[in-house]
Amino acid sequence: MAKQIKVSLIGNPNTGKTSVFNLLTGLNQQVGNYPGITVEKKKGVCKLSRGVKAHIMDLPGTYSLNASSLDENVVIELLLNKKDKDYPDVAVVVSDVENLKRNLLLFTQIKDLDIPTILVINMADRMRRKGISLDIPLLEKELNTKIALVSARKGEGIDELKKLIESYTSLSKKPCFDALSFAPDYFGRLQKAFPDQSLYKLWLIITQDVNFRKVDKQEIVVSPDFKIKPESELKRLQQKETIKRYQFINNVLKKGLIVDEKAATGIRAKMDRILTHKFWGYFIFLAILLLIFQAIYDWSSYPMDLIDEAFAWLSEVTKALLPSGPFVDLITEGIIPGLGGIVIFIPQIAFLFLFISILEESGYMSRVVFLMDRVMRRFGLSGKSVVPLVSGTACAIPAVMATRNIENWKERLITILVVPFTTCSARLPVYLIIIALVIPDEKVGWIFGYQSLTLMLLYFLGFGTAVGSAWLLNKILKIKSKSYFVIEMPGYKVPLFKNVIINVIEKTKAFVFGAGKIILAISIILWVLASFGPNENFSNAEEIITELHPNLSQEELDNKIASYKLEYSFIGYAGKAIEPIVAPLGYDWKIGIGIISSFAAREVFVGTLATIYSVGSDEEETIKNRMAAEVNQATGGPLFNLASGISLLLFYAFAMQCMSTLAIVKRETNSWKWPMIQLVFMSIFAYSVALIVYQILK
Amino acid sequence: MKTTIATLKRGQRALIKEITSDIIPLKLLEMGCLPGNEVELLQTAPFQCPMYLNINGSHLAIRKEIAAQIEVQII
């Protein structure tokens, strides 16, 4: 059997840790979640030499082992739990040559954990430009480790790192100095109370508020030999510890690192002057946003049309090739359109994540946070809420996850609660089809069409509602939390193509397999519900209709039979049952079905209508034409007119119709209270607005 | 009036004095905001908040109310 080495990749954010991970593993990686929480868990395999494989785990970026976020908790939970199956044989700490001093803080903490540790000094290619020179042998001796000088950008130094990993048994497990020597009395007593445990681990258990599965904090709390100090005193000790660590690091770097300020050149200051400028900064941000929207709507429409046609064609070919029967109907009317409904979103999601990862990789995103913090705070949000709100235009799920780096709990909670108002890509197909039906395809002036203006208005409405409800929640919610906000402003970098592409692929895959499963399952269920009925009205539809209308042509007869069947299918009864509730909004029972089924996911609405209107039909007539021909039984006019159309648009703009979002909010807030509040509030709000608008416009 | 990071002008440098307030997060200290270290105000957003600093070689932004808790001595 091959020799297996477990490696943990640890490092500060913005050190190029993920680039090192990508270089080591290539596309050979899996992304999952840590059980119970939504912190991304990235693992990959790297072949070191014949018969030796390294299993590399890319831990979330962290500034220190004193955890202040969920992501950081993950790191120390793993490193303190020797029984964890991912507990590393060797820790690789990635640092950035330009921020070595700060990065070494985490390194000295890791060194205190009895794990063989390698130090990677990344971005070596920038050393000359920054006038930096390093005395590697001296640093290795002082830090009691082995150092790999790596340039992930140029792919240099990786082989050396692989060799170091392979020979990890020869690495030192000892700390590089005694960081807890500033309070010998206190720590002496602690060690005496638990003589067989590592002192630094005990100290971490006392100070960290994380869930240690195997290590029991309670044991220390109740120990008669040792008294834990109150929190404020613990904090003083942590401060002293940090100062002590920096003293050590400063002494080491004084000898081992030389910076020639004269040789240093930097574009940071010049770029910052423009990008964080009081006017131009905002102007550029707005321009970038416009570019992103342009890409999502305009550029992605070409591949989307292709996908749409390809699936329609696939359905037809399958139908023509296979013998007819219920199973083939399930494939051509349930599964293929269902799959098409997932695949069609890929171009938009890929474009969005392409831009987001470029903005993050380049260091620009931090400038946006800086620019927007003050504005967002007026509404009870944080500058860091901008990223989730922008991501929310693709999908609320990654957006809710992206709130994790907001330190202030109240700001984070408000962001989570309002993100589902932003116009996510799942609303887009609903908007597009209804706009096409009820808004005239005419132009105002030369360029802008009524239809695209309506779409833009809906986007503004989404953002406006999000910000407005944030303001309201900020007034209502009585949560005391310390307002603290620290954001690193990393240096500017040209994004690495490989990192961006891997990120886009990962995020798109997560959507396709995560949300996709639900959409596909619902499409199949819907097809079944629409293809079977509870009584003989359904099974004898052909005879009943033929008897009622003996003089119709075959084609008209088929259509009548199909709609009669649908009316008496299981789904038809369900739709009829809720018709009284949705009728005041201007909807009939078919739209009712659409709303019920899209309760799980909005994009299902169009899929549902597609299923409803294509069940039993052979012609190629588009769904849009069929919808346009629908008649409202109550008024006699077309079902989709301006009043009902606008009412439906507004209903979808405000309603919380996404089970996956509710699930993720539950996970991120760790309670059912918040998703339930979201669901009830948004549903009532959506219903009321749709009702009022329909009654006024009708 | 005490001299704090919040009272610095753009481009001004100062040395951090003792850190006493409890509301200063440990994370900020870990990023280099420690007594004796040098701090330079690089840029502020409109209304002076947040403030973009270079502390001991680390570039970071903090809000004004935290900045007002960190006493400094201008150099």
TrEMBL record, chain A:
GO molecular function term, any single one: GTP binding
Entry's transmembrane regions: 279-297, 335-359, 413-439, 451-473, 510-530, 642-665, 677-697
Residues binding Mg(2+) 1: 22
Record: residues binding Mg(2+) 2: 25-26
Binding annotation for GTP: 11-18, 36-40, 58-61, 122-125
Cellular location(s): Cell inner membrane; Cell membrane
GO CC list: plasma membrane
InterPro entries the UniProt entry points to: Fe2_transport_prot-B, Fe2_transport_prot_B_C, FeoB_GTPase, G_FEOB_dom, Gate_dom, GTP-bd, P-loop_NTPase
Gene3D superfamilies assigned to the protein according to its UniProt record, in alphabetical order: P-loop containing nucleotide triphosphate hydrolases
Membrane protein topology class: Multi-pass membrane protein
Keywords: Cell membrane, GTP-binding, Ion transport, Iron, Iron transport, Magnesium, Membrane, Metal-binding, Nucleotide-binding, Transmembrane, Transmembrane helix, Transport
Pfam families xrefs: FeoB_C (PF07664), FeoB_N (PF02421), Gate (PF07670)
Domain FeoB-type G: 4-171
Similarity remark: Belongs to the TRAFAC class TrmE-Era-EngA-EngB-Septin-like GTPase superfamily. FeoB GTPase (TC 9.A.8) family.
Protein purpose: Probable transporter of a GTP-driven Fe(2+) uptake system.
Family annotation (PANTHER family): FE(2+) TRANSPORTER FEOB (PTHR43185:SF1), FERROUS IRON TRANSPORT PROTEIN B (PTHR43185)
This protein's name: Ferrous iron transport protein B
Organism of origin: Aquimarina atlantica
UniProtKB/TrEMBL annotation, chain B:
Positions of the Ferrous iron transporter FeoA-like domain: 3-74
Stored Pfam families: FeoA (PF04023)
InterPro entries per the UniProt record, alphabetical: Fe-transptr_FeoA-like, FeoA, FeoA_core_dom, Transcriptional_repressor_C
GO molecular function: transition metal ion binding
Key words, A-Z: Iron
Nucleotide-binding in keyword set: no
Keyword Iron attached: yes
Name assigned to this protein: Iron transporter
